[in-house]
Design goal:
By secondary structure, the protein is α/β, with parallel strands linked by helices. It folds into 2 domains: 175 residues, Rossmann fold (3-Layer(aba) Sandwich); 160 residues, 2-Layer Sandwich (Dihydrodipicolinate Reductase, domain 2), CATH 3.30.360. Helices cover 30% and strands 16% of the residues. The protein contains 14 helices and 15 strands. The strands form 2 sheets. A 9-stranded mixed beta sheet has the order 13-12-11-7-10-9-8-14-15, covered by helices on one side. Strands 3-2-1-4-5-6 form a 6-stranded parallel beta sheet, with helices on both faces. Strand 11 and strand 12 form a beta hairpin. Helix 5 packs parallel to helix 6, helix 6 packs antiparallel against helix 13 and helix 9 packs antiparallel against helix 13. The longest helix is centred in the last third of the chain and has 20 residues. The chain is globular. It starts with 5 loop residues before the first helix and ends in a 15-residue tail after the last helix.
Length: 450
């Protein structure tokens, strides 16, 4: 097996794609102009992606866990099967046009960089990457390698998020100075997405048969195995996931980030009543507040995220008695807008008669819609049409950097004064190793791009 480093990937990329790297819609190896797709991460969220493309387009499938991969392998019997994406690229680089990555958060970055360095288009499941340095590097790499990129946050492909932006830009809401969002309590139950260990550090369990745990860890320092890590309850452990905020912000906060052109905050603070002492695991309750400066003619904005804690109070004039279990509200000086946890079905908080009249004569639709509202299909169409999808890395990396600063505040508490130009938490050098995390030998991807 050849363990490919960044340098050897660059040499391979030069050999395989010389003269073609910057032609995003080139489909060089496929009969009948078919897009040849490789999957990294077959079970879980991976299955939500490979089921959206023709099975004969999937030429390779890679998953470190036999428990999760078998249904995909069975459904796509002609696809070559792998456990190590580095081996897959070593053997099949010339036969792959595009790669879908649906692994746990901590391995998104090396898989995406490996693919891009070979000139492959990439779609990465949300939340794109595990730290701010990785986000910036992916953002730059997508341009440098000339590929079509997409983060798989489904809500950005919907009609609903386009309505929100169109209504705001048409002046329906007026000036928006405040955004509030909330999520219910984290469901720490067996087989959910979040599992809480009995103690910290977690008890040591036997590695299940069929799981290559060393490959599952990837760039992360070796941890004794615990059954909550794999296959799906890793999200609450900060070495692997980004908690509920990292998991859901790209749905719930996508609309205000896009519509208001928020950019990056200058200040973030978090109230965490009962933090986990070693900061290794998500707290059950928190409130995170971002402060955004004025942007051109747009006023400063305060945005709050309530997680696992009492929901924000319903205000006079909203015309509702209770907020739903999760959601987002944009408060304008003319009108207020509400959505659920995803931006699919926005509604103005006005009397029913006024809402019905608004729906009869809404602002003009100025933003192109995505057919079937599916990000995988939007990405495939963009590759074939030499365009970029809406949640391409230039947009998605900034959205997730905003969220990552919030995750850091939530994890370590207190206030972060953020120097976006230099990726620094001013006066808090202890956060440097979380803005750019150390990696194990053999997993050093993207060095030198920033």
């Amino acid at each position: 097996m050849k363990h490919l480093t960044r340098r050897s990937f660059l040499r391979s990329a030069s050999a395989v794609t010389a003269g073609t790297l910057f032609i995003p819609n080139l489909i060089s190896c496929s009969p009948n102009n078919r897009l040849n797709i490789a999957m990294i991460g077959v079970g879980g969220r991976g299955s939500a992606s490979w089921t959206q493309v023709p099975k004969n387009s999937i030429v390779a499938m890679c998953d470190v866990d036999d428990r999760m991969s078998q249904s995909g392998f069975k459904a796509c019997p002609d696809a070559k099967q792998y456990k190590d994406f580095r081996v897959m690229f070593d053997e099949m680089a010339k036969d792959i046009d595009a790669v879908i990555i649906a692994t746990p958060d901590h391995t998104h970055f090396p898989a995406a960089m490996a693919a891009m360095q070979l000139g492959k288009h990439v779609l990465v499941e949300k939340p794109l990457a595990h730290n701010i340095w990785q986000l910036r590097t992916l953002q730059k790499a997508a341009k440098y390698y000339g590929i079509v990129s997409q983060m798989g946050n489904q809500g950005h492909a919907t009609n609903g998020i386009r309505l929100i932006k169109e209504w705001y830009e048409a002046g329906v809401l007026g000036e928006v100075k405040e955004v509030i969002a909330w999520q219910g309590k984290i469901d720490f139950v067996k087989d959910s997405y979040f599992g809480k260990p009995a103690s910290f550090p977690p008890p040591v369990d036997e590695v299940p048969a069929g799981l290559d745990y060393d490959l599952w860890l990837g760039p992360v320092a070796v941890h004794p195995f615990n059954n909550l890590y794999a296959p799906k309850t890793w999200r609450g452990f900060y070495d692997f996931g980004n908690g509920k905020l990292g998991d859901w912000c790209c749905h719930t906060l996508d609309a205000p980030f896009w519509a208001l052109d928020l950019g990056l905050p200058h200040t973030v603070d978090a109230i965490v009543p009962n933090p986990v002492p070693d900061h290794s695991f998500v707290a059950e309750e928190s409130v995170v507040t971002w402060q955004f400066a004025a942007r051109g003619n747009k006023v400063p904005v305060t945005m709050k995220w309530y997680e696992g804690i009492e929901k924000p109070a319903v205000r006079p004039g909203w015309g509702i008695d209770e907020l739903p279990g999760s959601g987002m509200i944009m408060i304008g000086d003319k009108k207020t807008l509400i959505t659920g946890g995803r931006p699919n079905n926005p509604k103005l908080l006005v009397p029913d008669e006024e809402w019905n009249e608004f729906q009869k004569n809404p602002p003009a639709q100025t933003i192109p819609r995505v057919e079937e509202e599916k990000p995988v299909q939007e990405w495939v169409a963009a590759i074939k049409n030499d365009t970029l999808p809406g949640s391409n890395f230039d947009y998605a990396a900034s959205l997730m950097e905003m969220a990552q600063i919030g995750v850091l505040a939530q994890r370590f508490g207190g206030t972060i004064n953020y120097d976006a130009k230099n990726m620094k938490a001013v006066g808090r050098p202890e956060l440097d190793n979380y803005i750019k995390e150390p990696v194990r030998d053999g997993w050093e991807y993207g060095e030198g791009l920033l």
